[in-house]
UniProtKB/TrEMBL annotation:
This is LysR family transcriptional regulator. Belongs to the LysR transcriptional regulatory family. Keywords: DNA-binding, Transcription, Transcription regulation. It comes from Methylomonas subterranea. Residues 1-58 form the HTH lysR-type domain. Gene3D superfamilies: Periplasmic binding protein-like II (3.40.190.10), Winged helix-like DNA-binding domain superfamily/Winged helix DNA-binding domain (1.10.10.10). The lineage of its organism: Bacteria, Pseudomonadati, Pseudomonadota, Gammaproteobacteria, Methylococcales. InterPro entries: LysR_HTH_N, LysR_subst-bd, WH-like_DNA-bd_sf, WH_DNA-bd_sf.
Length: 291
């Protein structure tokens, strides 16, 4: 008795027809019929009786059906145990993600990747870019996704994934809600919420000095969620990467910063392909296709 015969037998049981069973198992009907006939020969009797409405199990078919289904259940359980055991001995691929990169923007990619490549385990480490690159140096990470102000030099390689502009973030009752364009000079009249983990913080400070703009930091935080919570409460306004804000975010509105236009580039940073794990190449291939 072969597993293919078992699969075809149960398909006929479930579909009530050799034709529908063949369609469900993506096999030509003569091949399915031949496999069922071979099974019947092995078991010593007919398993199905055919009529105009389809086919029904014979007494012998009804007798063996529960046992056949139990064989399938136990086979699937054995496979699951084997996969679990092999994964216990597998070192996961460790990917560092910079703190300010929106989880909801990358999560669909990782979900698709895991579905397409279930044999690769992923471990995501969220931290500042400095800490992530240090871990990459020490072989603690296999790949880093960040927004470097300048591409790393030396033995690292990088892959550009996407760009995102900075937006002005404010409460839905704020006066900015009546404006279509907001520039840097307009923001200085409002309490400003300073993102301590912003990778462009020094760049923004230099731009403000060059334009003689003074952003008064009413509050500072290293947490994006706390910044957004303070925006919702009407405490002040913030400058944030556009994908940080989910669509239809509660009590929050955004406008692109019009002058100057500030944007950042999200990159994957990794060791040379000659020294990287083979799984890194698979992640990079998917990243190229996903973005």
């Amino acid at each position: 008795m072969e597993m293919q015969q078992i699969r075809y037998f149960l398909a006929v049981c479930d579909k009530g027809s050799f034709t529908r069973a063949a369609q469900a198992t993506y096999v030509a009907q003569p091949s399915l019929t031949q496999a069922i006939k071979k099974l019947e020969d092995e078991l010593g009797g007919e398993l199905f009786s055919r009529d105009r409405s389809g086919c029904r199990l014979t007494a012998l078919g009804r007798l063996i059906e529960p046992s056949i289904r139990e064989i399938v259940r136990k086979t699937q359980a054995v496979k699951a145990e084997a996969v679990h055991f092999s994964r216990l001995n597998t070192v996961p691929l460790r990917i560092g993600v910079m703190t300010t990169i929106a989880a909801h923007h990358l999560s669909p990619f990782f979900a698709d990747f895991q579905q397409e490549r279930p044999h690769i385990e992923l471990e995501l480490v969220v931290d500042s870019e400095c800490n992530l690159l240090n871990q990459l140096d020490e072989d603690g990470l296999d790949l880093v996704i960040s927004a470097p102000t300048s591409l790393p030099v030396g033995h690292y390689q990088s892959l550009k994934l996407y760009e995102e502009r900075y937006v002005v973030v404010f409460n839905d009752k704020h006066r900015f809600n009546q404006m279509q364009q907001i520039d840097l000079a307009t923001i200085q009249a409002e309490p400003y919420l300073d993102r301590l983990n912003c990778e462009l913080r020094e760049t923004l400070r230099n731009v403000c000095q060059g334009r003689q703009v003074n952003l008064y930091a009413a509050y500072r935080s290293n947490s994006e969620e706390w910044i957004l919570s303070m925006v919702r409460a009407g405490i002040g306004v913030a400058l944030m990467p556009e994908f940080t804000i989910t669509k239809n975010a509660d009590k929050i509105q955004v406008r692109y910063l019009s002058d100057p236009e500030i944007r950042r580039t999200i990159c994957a940073i990794f060791p040379p392909t000659s020294t990287a794990k083979p799984e890194v190449a698979e992640v990079l291939k998917s990243l190229r296709m996903g973005f």
